[in-house]
Predict the structure of FBD domain.
Amino acid sequence: MAEVERRVCEDRISSLSDDLLVQILLLVPTKDAVATTFLSKRWRFVWRMLPRLEYRETETSDGNINSVWWFLEDSFRLHKAPLLERLCIELGPQCPIYVNPVKWVAKALDTRVRWLIFRLLWKGEPIRMPKSLYFCKTLERLTLSYKILVDVPRQVSLPSLTELDLFCVVYKDEDSHVRLLSSCPVLKCLKVTRNRHVEDNVRTFSVKVPSLLRLDYKADTTFQDSDDRFLVIDTPNLLSLHIFDIFGHSFSVEYMPHLVTVVIDVLFPNENFMRSLSSVKYLALSPFDIMVPWCDAVNNYSRLVECMIFLSDQDLCESLLVLLSNCSKLKVFMVDSEIGQYANRGPGLWNQPSSVPRCLSSHLEIFEWEGYAGREYEKELIRYILENSKCLKTAGISPNSTCSEEKQKMVIELESMQRVPTSVLLSSARMLFRR
């Protein structure tokens, strides 16, 4: 019996190797991992070898926020891992301004950190990162958010950095971001967010990174001096480009022959920019009314296979067909008219084109319309696409009405289109009503 009791009480986990115990602690939040120091002598120092640490503000059940600065202060100084794979520090307004977060970042850099996430939302002024940040040879991914002052030295080198995220930070001067980007010879992904509530000291944001493959750029459209903002993109190897909310900006774009995916949301295009998109395969435009000149400026999107349009003006349906005429290999075409369903409730105009776009007769396989309101011009356009799409496999129409009777009426109208006498083969098409 004693032997059985001894086996029941045996602590087999504590007998595991340090490496296995570290892997177990990586499955729980950092705060819980540190708490294991009180379990026994065996656990006292295990957490100090964790290669990944996260310090985030947490919300209590009564809605209050528990700041982690004090916990970070007490625990991080005890950390002894020779290599830090990932450090995440997120501090909110509850963090006192007398705290010195820079020393924590400096220590992480001394431990050869590979991935650093630092988010500071305290009530104090933006802080400078330690100079060693700009010379870290092991740093591969870096995220800086909010109350960070990007003050880049004249001589800087980040030879391993592949991903950089600059979220609403402040730059010391107009050239700080230029020096930072030029110091990253293997940078692959860059995300930049600028906010109207943050004066970041930059008028011309220039992205000249030969190694860059993906660029996400977002700037608040309500900048008071948005007309004085410029964006320069010179990235010849770029594969993916996402631009959001740069309404009113001026910009210059060099040719990007390898561009595959483009997502545009609120942008005033120019001819140079439009032509730089001629090689894309996947394109999303919002709102389409601003993009209408693209239909005429670029007469051949020869590689485009998937296109999504956010339609805010019903009078632009004919422009959709102009766009389709320029996309000879298009296989997937999606329209979302929900954003404009209250903007213009007039009858709309529809003139059937004299020739059928090539993509409809030979390539289009998937057609979707989100936010269908049953207006006459919508019905005519959808009817035209269904009747002339010889390769169509799936057609998904999603009504925007919340009234069951009105929705049922739309469904009946749409289903009747499949029974219209036509020589087009629609036997494999499926009408998908997802609401």
Residues 383 and 417 are 6 Å apart (CA to CA). The chain has three domains: 14-50, 52-202, 281-435. Residues 341-345, 419-435 have pLDDT under 50 and may be disordered. The longest strand covers residues 366-372.
